[in-house]
Design brief:
Layout (H helix, E strand, L loop, with lengths): L2 E7 L6 H30 L11 H4 L12 H19 L15 E6 L3 E5 L5 E6 L8 E7 L9 E7 L2 E9 L7 H10 L4 H5 L2 E5 L6 E3 L4 E2 L3 H28 L10 H35 L3 E5 L3 H4 L6 E2 L6 E2 L3 H14 L1 H14 L3 E5 L16 E5 L2 E4 L4 E4 H18 L6 H14 L14 H20 L12 H5 L13
Parallel strand pairs: 8-11, 11-14
Antiparallel strand pairs: 1-7, 2-6, 3-4, 4-5, 6-7, 8-9, 9-10, 12-13, 15-16, 16-17
Helix pairs in contact: 1-3, 6-7, 7-10
Length: about 500
Amino acid sequence: MAIRGFSIDITDKVNRNQAITFAQWIGASNVMRNQKLTEYKSLLAAQKGSEINKAYSHIRKNKVLSFLKDIPVQLMRNAAQDIFEDVEKWRKGLVRFPRHKGRSRKRSIRITKEMFVLEPLGENRSLLTFFDNATQKRQRLFSIQLGYAPHQLCKQFRISRQGRRFYLSGSYNDGADSATNEELLKGFVQQSLSDEALLAQITGIDRGVKLPIATSDGLRKAYSPEKAERLRQLARKKARYQRILAAKKRRNGNKNVRRVESKEQQKLADKIANFDAKTARIRHDFLHQTSREVVLAAKPIIALEDLKLGNMTKRASPKRGVHGRGYVRNRARAKSGLNRSLLNVALGKLGDFITYKANDYGKAVVEVNPAGTSQTCHVCGEKNTIRPQQDTLICLNGCGTFHADDNAGIVVAQRAVPYIQESVFAQKAKTRKKTAIRKKAVSPPLGNELTSTEKSGELETASNDVSLARSRSQADIRPSSTASLAQRNSLTTMDTSEAGVLETR
């Protein structure tokens, strides 16, 4: 049985009073989140990471934040619990450290079962009703019909806000019995297929900025000229209003440049948030349509690159000049532009959409090492190539000229063969746990996360140990028996220059 998610735009379904109440809840939840985050940072800086907890009553008692007392205590509890769990994930090395959220960003509040009821409305329908509080004197606040039976729905919902738009999201159990991804892959292993036969069952997918999707079967998907132009217009409008808002903040002498301190500034911030919401809707629509088309056209196994977008979108590090004097050019502006392009195309979400849609259609998904897929020739398996243009790859070994993205898709498919044959997917859960431990090992110890400069020697040693372990694991891969896969080891070997950006999961 699969757990699915849903999101509903309820902006046109709420009246003014309901919108004000939801806005107050979401705003108070965000204040609680930011206050707890500031508290956690102080504890970590003071080497008191063990004192991090879920307590929130002292924040509600703060006289400066007296408005929090008017918000249901259950919502404040949920907000404190959410940020605590985010920090715990960071301490385990699974995610980045959380950031403060401003008014212009998308924010949400988690509503648990104390403040809503689900009533059946015939077959496969239910009425969801939110209350203004969790006491016995509570009153109905907002109701909406959902196309799922009460027993299918989850025990909590989220109401989010971006700009002036409100969204209701949750999850449900579709009740359908389907094979897991591991079970599907085991089925191919049990067939004892040759490398050539297994490769014929795989569709490799290359994800990029200019061309979001290119498959080993020759399918290419990109934004239509109309949607691409619409995205550019929204980006220009957003940048214009950002400049206006920044100028007003300078003239008004805002002490905190991130905070809006007047109604006029808030209106500008809302417009910027609306541009973000419109951009997200266009991108979301494209991702859904593209992922469905790709999955329907794909073979029984879909191979994706295991992209580490967090590492790929890091800022360019400053570079000291000669003898440690001043700084030299590090192309930080170009790197920032590349980061924006990577985030705008939403490669991570595209991979997630392909994965869950593949499961719906009974197709397996594997993730392979992405290092060097754009520079490797799929015929000879070597990186002795040049790219005179963005979409052209020429093999200097005489293999020919190929479309760069199509070639990358074929390389991705080839790399999936040893992955499946060696049953690496069966160790996926253990691998992720090891990854968390590895990240924790090269991270500062708990309670000293923000003052780790004196630990540089230990971190460097741990990093070298990790690199040695990675090289040993890659050396154990079974060589291919086919000509097209003869250079399998070279395909699965990570370049030293790319090891810090694209790590094996």
